[in-house]
Amino acid sequence: MTISKQIIAQMPKIELHCHLDGSISLETIHKLAKMENIPLPATLEEQQALFIAPEETKDLNEYLEKFHFIGRLLQTTAALELAAFDVVKQASYDNVKYIEVRFAPTLHTMKGLTLQEIVSAVVKGLKRGEVEFGVLSNALLCGMRHEPVENAIEVAKVAKSQLTHGVVGFDLAGNEVDFPPYAFEEAIKVAKDLDIPLTLHAGECHCGKNVYDAVVLGANRIGHGIALKDTPEYIEYIKENEIVLELAPTSNFQTKTVTSWEEYPFKKFLDLGLKVTINTDNRTVSNTTLNKEYAKLAEVYDLTLKDFYKVSCNGVFGAFVDDEVKKELGEIVNEEFEKLNGH
Ligand SMILES: O=c1[nH]cnc2c1ncn2[C@@H]1O[C@H](CO)[C@@H](O)[C@H]1O
Ligand SMILES: [Zn+2]
C-alpha cells in the first residue's frame, strides 16, 4: 500500500536544491509588488501564467523564461529579505529540517545593490526564518551561465567572504545547453582553490557527460544529474566519489529532461546505491511542494519508509555543514523516522 500523505507530511526532510527566485509564494509576490510599486496583471490566471511554468515546456531554456518577471521584484534588500523568509516558511510546511536556498546575486543588481548587500539581505531573511520556523537554513550562491565567466568568479569570491556567515557553497545555474561545465572551468577552479563546497547543475539537457565533467572539475554534488541514466559508463565514477544527486521530479518533467516515468531514474539510482535526494527546485515555477514531490515518487514506485529514510540520510550526508551539525541533523532524522516506524 502506498505510504499515506499524512505520513509523508510527517517525514523529516532535508532539502538541498531550492531556488529563491523560483519559490516565492503568490502571497509574498503580491506584497513585493506593492512594496516595489510594480503592477501585477489583474487576474489570478494571468499572474499564475507569469510565474508558473506549464507542465511541459520545450526545454530548460523555456522553463527559465519564468524567472524574468520575478527578478524585477527582487532588487532591494527589503524585498530579498522578505523573499528568503517566505521560502523558509514554506519549507517548514514540508517538515524540512535543513534547507539550502540558492540564488544568483548578479540578478539582483538592477537598482545598484552590491553583491555583498544582496547576499547579506538574503542571509538575514533565511536566519530570521530559521528562528521563526525552526528550519536550519543556509544559502548557496549561483553563477549564471549566460553571463561572462568573470561574473561567476566574482560570485565565488563573495561566497568565500561569507562562508562562515550563512553561505555554504557555490553553484552554476541557467543555460546548460549552450554553456556546459568546461565553459566555466576557470570559475570552478577559483571556487575549488578557495575551498568552497560545490554543487553544479548538470545533466538537465540530455548530456550525461556534463555530469561526469562537472564532477571531474570538482563538484561535490550535482543539481539533477538525470542524464546520467543514458551514460552508464559514468555511473560507477559518480558512486565511488559519493556524489550527491539533487533530483526534482516535477521540474525534470517540465524541462523535458524526461518524458515518461519509465525513463525517470530515481529508483534506478537509489537501487544502484547512488546518493539521491528529493527536492522542489522551484516551489512556484514548478507549482509544487516537497510533500507533493515525495507523494508523487511514493505513488509511482511504491516506496517504503526505508527508502525515504535513505533519502534523508543522503541529504544529511550531502549538506554543506560541519560534522557537528550533520550529527545533530542525523539524530533528528533518526528520531522522527523511528516515531513513524512505530505507527
Ligand atoms: O532547474 C534549473 N536549471 C538551471 N537553472 C535554473 C533552474 N532553476 C532555476 N534556475 C536558474 O537559477 C537562477 C537563480 O536562482 C534562476 O533565476 C534561474 O534562471
Ligand atoms: Zn535548479
Automatic annotation (TrEMBL):
Annotated SUPFAM superfamilies: Metallo-dependent hydrolases
Entry's cofactor comment: Binds 1 zinc ion per subunit.
CDD domains: ADA
Chain positions recorded as Zn(2+) binding sites: 17, 19, 201, 281
GO terms under biological process: adenosine catabolic process; hypoxanthine salvage; inosine biosynthetic process; nucleotide metabolic process; purine ribonucleoside monophosphate biosynthetic process
Site (Important for catalytic activity): 224
Protein name per UniProt: Adenosine deaminase
Annotated source species: Pilibacter termitis
